[in-house]
Specification:
The chain has one domain: Rossmann fold. Strand 4 and strand 5 form a beta hairpin. It is globular. The longest helix is centred in the C-terminal third of the chain and has 16 residues. The chain contains eight helices and nine strands. The protein is of the alpha/beta class. It has a five-stranded parallel sheet with strand order 6-7-8-3-9, with helices on both faces. A four-stranded antiparallel sheet has the order 2-1-4-5, covered by helices on one side. The structure holds adenosine-5'-triphosphate. Adenosine-5'-triphosphate binds next to strand 1, strand 2 and helix 1. Pfam families: ABC_tran.
Length: 236
């Protein structure tokens, strides 16, 4: 078993500075390891901290304590101590993020939006284009939309463009934040296939899936988040 991600004793408290400095303790000693080719699904009641943990793994939130080590270009790198420059490099080469929301870039065509992560990794344009077209076809994004900027696309079309963008590059680690939310059954099935293919090539995946059916199809194991808010009252 080759580990790709090691999370040790991560604590995270939100401090609401504009609300009298109220402290919201959310993560209390989160610890998990994820191997290459494995999909771990975050599990817990609403508000238990699933999104917080996923965002923390991507370096979006600072931690109070703990380590988040990722195997990056042959070496372990602690994301909690990484410089902004290292973080950018990790996100370009090692950790992919797929959510249901597309950050729309004005005037850039859907095809270019999807190709971009692979080109940033140093991929050939022709190969990136071939893969992007293949993914957009699989995700049922009509061909007449490919040359248009996705700003005017429907919510579901934008979501599928974003999924194609998230799966085009072969990231060693993938973080999936409800990528199937509000997709129809046919497109949900495509995303499940993409996840199986990513696992088969050795991606280590951490995801949140509210759809139980999808969860059962992709999860190798569940990681139960023991919410700190269950144990601690909100403190000032
Ligand atoms: N940026 C933030 N600032 C302050 N509090 C936050 C922030 N993000 C999340 N929280 C709080 O942290 C707690 C956990 O939220 P989080 O979104 O991680 O839960 P979740 O398990 O993903 O919930 P759901 O299943 O409903 O999406 C909640 O009480 C939420 O209010």
């Amino acid at each position: 078993m080759t580990l790709a991600l090691k999370v040790s004793d991560v604590h995270k408290t939100f401090v609401l500075h504009n609300q009298n400095g109220i402290r919201l303790p959310v993560l209390a000693g989160a610890s998990l390891s994820v191997a290459a080719g494995e999909c771990v699904v975050l599990h817990g009641r609403s508000g238990s901290g699933k999104s917080t943990l996923l965002r923390t793994l991507y370096g979006n939130y600072l931690t109070d304590t703990g380590r988040i080590e990722v195997m990056h270009q042959g070496q372990w790198l602690d994301m909690t101590q990484a410089s902004p420059r290292a973080l950018v490099n990790v996100r370009r080469q090692t950790i992919g993020w797929v959510s249901q929301f597309l950050r729309v870039i004005p005037r850039i065509s859907a095809l270019e939006v999807v190709m971009q992560p692979m080109i940033e990794q140093g991929g050939e344009r022709a190969e990136a284009r071939r893969r992007a077209e293949h993914l957009l076809t699989r995700l049922n994004v009509p061909e007449h939309l490919w040359q248009l900027a996705p700003a005017t696309f429907s919510g579901g079309e934008q979501q599928r463009v974003n999924i194609a963008r998230g799966f085009i590059a072969d990231y060693p680690v993938l973080l999936l934040d409800e990528p199937t939310a509000s997709l129809d059954a046919a497109n949900r099935a495509v995303v499940v296939e993409l996840i199986h293919e990513a696992k088969a090539r050795g991606a280590a995946i951490v995801g949140i899936f509210h759809d139980e059916d999808v969860r059962e199809q992709v999860a190798d194991r569940l990681y139960d988040i023991q919410s700190r808010a269950d144990a601690w009252p909100v403190m000032q």
